[in-house]
Automatic annotation (TrEMBL):
<feature type="transmembrane region" description="Helical">
    <location>
        <begin position="379"/>
        <end position="402"/>
    </location>
</feature>
<feature type="transmembrane region" description="Helical">
    <location>
        <begin position="81"/>
        <end position="101"/>
    </location>
</feature>
<keyword id="KW-0813">Transport</keyword>
<feature type="transmembrane region" description="Helical">
    <location>
        <begin position="244"/>
        <end position="275"/>
    </location>
</feature>
<dbReference type="InterPro" id="IPR052180">
    <property type="entry name" value="NhaC_Na-H+_Antiporter"/>
</dbReference>
<feature type="transmembrane region" description="Helical">
    <location>
        <begin position="42"/>
        <end position="60"/>
    </location>
</feature>
<keyword id="KW-0812">Transmembrane</keyword>
<feature type="transmembrane region" description="Helical">
    <location>
        <begin position="205"/>
        <end position="224"/>
    </location>
</feature>
<protein>
    <submittedName>
        <fullName>Sodium:proton antiporter</fullName>
    </submittedName>
</protein>
<dbReference type="InterPro" id="IPR018461">
    <property type="entry name" value="Na/H_Antiport_NhaC-like_C"/>
</dbReference>
<feature type="transmembrane region" description="Helical">
    <location>
        <begin position="16"/>
        <end position="36"/>
    </location>
</feature>
<feature type="transmembrane region" description="Helical">
    <location>
        <begin position="296"/>
        <end position="315"/>
    </location>
</feature>
<keyword id="KW-1003">Cell membrane</keyword>
<dbReference type="Pfam" id="PF03553">
    <property type="entry name" value="Na_H_antiporter"/>
</dbReference>
<feature type="transmembrane region" description="Helical">
    <location>
        <begin position="414"/>
        <end position="433"/>
    </location>
</feature>
<keyword id="KW-1133">Transmembrane helix</keyword>
<feature type="transmembrane region" description="Helical">
    <location>
        <begin position="121"/>
        <end position="148"/>
    </location>
</feature>
């Protein structure tokens, strides 16, 4: 009996070789980016397909299988009900974003903020507008693209450091990436941990609120020349209704698919009423929005299959054992989760994929050490989003750096919010607050 327990304990340590497919993917991704000078030259889908192909060719010596059996494992992993639900939500979120843009909801949110922006609080005001916009849109790249021209104009008129205003925009963009109900990172974090968006939001907002407050205070004391932003900013409060519906319905705990569909149809009716599009054009706009999420949906399925194969090969058990072998407390488990998703994000420059890949392992760690799933989801989202906003080779800094004509590296020190997210995240782990509510959903 004792021998069997020792054998099981040893087998639970897993095998490092089971991580070879993931290591090859990360090496290919990093080397391609470093050699070519652009990390976008290695498409994530191609890299994951290569890693998946390698995993299919490998076999566990302790449990040998045929290729056909490993293909079945891959398909079952990619077809997990949690992943498929995530894919559906991704597609609906894409449709919602497309419809909201088509009926000018994005412009209304931005212009509303600009119309009430006090000239003596222009920098904190820019951050608040960015937070509202990113929370409404659920996309950091969309926020950067929308606000970058305004930030550059502010820097020109005030003589403010252009790298600073770029850092403000990127920080605000990561606020929404982390907290928005329609952000793909929120969808990934909540689905991998099988919890509701409402519970994750409650734990997450308490975790990052100090970072928001500190960042605003710092921006208030940045010396700049007081100016008025020129231009006329038109907005229609009715156009903001779809965003308000999504936020309110999510906060009261309505099922996420119902929330997304309600938002889409609200945008459709308002757009048709205002003549922004016809019913045929609406369908095309919604379809184009869905297509914008196709890559993310397919990558999520491929990652699910790859993780299933690495679990069979012993890689997941090895990683879990390595991360937790000296961990005795929930605090150590939380640090392991933060380190895991941060390293994944640094390697892939994609916070959503980092969460999808790290999520199953994080769930195992949280169960082992009694960490609430909502807190685990928050840690995954906070650290992946924070690091994604600080990587000079990630899309956010590359885009705004190119638009502003400055080096992405020069923007990094001025993305105070992302830096503060990491600091308050570590403090949250140290003090064990907020605990989060452990309510799972199917």
């Amino acid at each position: 009996m004792q021998k069997n327990e020792e054998k099981n304990k040893t087998s639970n340590k897993g095998k490092f070789m089971g991580l070879v497919p993931l290591i090859i993917f990360l090496a290919l991704y990093m080397l391609t980016g470093l050699v070519s000078g652009n990390f976008e030259n290695m498409p994530l889908m191609i890299g994951i397909l290569i890693a998946s192909g390698i995993a299919l060719m490998m076999s566990n010596k302790d449990n040998p299988t045929k290729l056909e059996e490993r293909v079945t494992m891959f398909c079952k992993g990619g077809g997990d009900h949690t992943l498929i639900l995530m894919v559906i939500i991704f597609i609906l979120a894409g449709a919602f974003h497309g419809v909201a843009s088509g009926m000018n909801a994005v412009d209304s949110v931005t212009n509303l903020g600009l119309s009430v922006l006090p000239s003596n609080l222009i920098l904190p005001g820019l951050f608040i507008i960015g937070c509202v916009l990113s929370f409404s849109m659920g996309t950091s790249m969309g926020t950067v693209a929308a606000l970058a021209p305004l930030a550059i104009d502010i820097a020109d008129k005030t003589g403010c450091n252009i790298a600073l205003v770029c850092g403000i925009v990127v920080g605000a963009a990561m606020f929404g990436d982390n907290l928005s109900f329609i952000s793909d990172t929120t969808i990934a974090a909540t689905r991998t941990q099988e919890i509701s968006m409402k519970d994750k939001f409650k734990a997450n907002v308490l975790m990052v609120l100090p970072a928001v407050v500190i960042n605003l205070i710092l921006l208030v004391f940045v010396p700049i020349d007081t100016v008025s932003i020129s231009g006329s900013y038109e907005y229609n409060l009715i156009n903001i209704i779809p965003y308000l519906l999504v936020i309110v319905l999510s906060l009261i705990g309505i099922q996420v698919i119902t929330v997304m569909v309600t938002g889409i149809f609200a945008g459709m009716f308002i757009g048709l009423y205002h003549g922004d599009f016809t019913i045929i054009e609406f369908m095309k706009i919604a379809h184009d929005g869905m297509r914008g999420m196709e890559d993310m949906a397919i990558i999520a399925i491929l990652v699910g299959g790859l993780v299933a194969l690495m679990k069979y090969l012993g890689g997941i058990d090895w990683l879990l054992h390595t991360l937790t072998r000296k961990t005795k407390t929930a605090r150590g488990g939380e640090l392991s989760i933060a380190a895991l998703v941060s390293l994944m994000d640094i390697s892939t420059t994609n916070n959503t994929i980092s969460i999808i890949a790290a999520g199953p392992l994080a769930k195992d760690i949280s169960d082992e050490f009694g960490i609430s799933r909502s807190r685990t989801a928050s840690l995954l989202d906070v650290f992946s989003s924070a690091f994604n906003g600080l990587l000079p080779y990630a899309g956010q800094l590359l885009v705004i750096g190119g638009m502003a004509g400055v080096s992405p590296v020069s923007i990094m020190p001025y993305n105070w919010y992302s830096i503060l997210m990491i600091v308050v995240g570590l403090i949250s782990i140290a003090i064990g607050f907020p605990k989060g509510k452990d309510v799972k959903v199917n």
